[in-house]
Amino acid sequence: MKQKRILVPTEGIDTWKQFLAEPDKQWKQGFSAMSTALSWEKSDGLPPEIKEIFTSAEDENLRDAQLALAIPEYKVVLDGGPRPSQNDVFALVTSSGGLIAMMVEGKAREDFDVPLEQWRQRTSAKGVHERMAQISENIGLREPIPNHIRYQLLHRTASAVIEAKRFFASHAIMLVQSFVENDDENHFDDFIAFLDLYGKKAKKRTMIKLYDNTKYRLYAAWVQSKIE
Predict the structure, then answer these.
(1) pLDDT tens digits, 136-147
(2) What is the DSSP track for 33-87?
């Protein structure tokens, strides 16, 4: 299912609920879906924890970043199968350094889907080839990507780049908005493993540049928000 291009403003957090893939299962107090909706709805622009990574960015041209629009449960169509990447929030952000396309993945205690090995086993060979070719090309990694990497981190990052290209944005960001501090519960180790692919050290509350070419710069970030 493609993302609709005609959109209307939300009317509070219940608007977010109706867009969930499994609302009865996902919409619960203390879970990431509701916490993400509350965090964004109550903020005047970017949630403060996310705003902080821009104001402290190494690139001073990103420090004046402002939210232009945010779209909940944003679908990005990918090659190799019918299921799109359904991102918790797509935020289009303006800055003096250019337009920024940011995909936000809210997390409480949920994992980042299955390891890549399991996804490959449950997907057709043709689907794996097409989707991984598209993902790798967009996020600046060569195939084969190691099997222990969590699949969700890959297609969320690719989603940010795909939309950056569509909007002619000069920056793409995959951001994890975690609502759990404890690293034994929040799966920060999977984020560490993902950044290792780029030779980068994972650090919370910091925008980390992963990849740079003539058209866009790709970043990853992990912010800590209070559970709502």
Answers:
(1) 999 999 999 999
(2) HHHHHHHHHHSSSS-HHHHHHHHT-SSGGGTT-EEEEEEEEEEE--SSSS--EEE
Query: What is the identity of the amino acid at 118?
Result: Q
| Residue 187 DSSP code | T
Q: What is the maximum span of the chain, computed from C-alpha positions, in angstroms?
A: 45
Domain ranges of the chain: 28-224
Contact yes or no for 102/164 (Cβ under 8 A): no
Query: What is the pTM (predicted TM-score) of this model?
Result: 0.96
Question: Is the separation of the CB atoms in 23 and 44 below 8 Å?
Answer: no
Arithmetic mean of pLDDT, 8-19: 92
The answer to whether residues 146 and 169 touch, using CB atoms and an 8 Å cutoff, is no
Interval 166-181 mean pLDDT: 97
Distance (Å, rounded) from C-alpha 193 to C-alpha 205? 17
- Distances in Å between the alpha carbon of 47 and those of 62, 87, 222? 16, 17, 13
- Beta strand residue intervals within the chain, DSSP E: 66-76, 85-94, 100-107, 171-178, 208-212, 217-224
For residues 99 and 123, give the distance between their C-alpha atoms in angstroms, rounded to a whole number: 35
Residue 175 pLDDT? 98
Residues with Cβ within 8 Å of residue 29, at least 6 apart in sequence: none
Q: Return d(Cα 92, Cα 15) in angstroms, integer.
A: 19
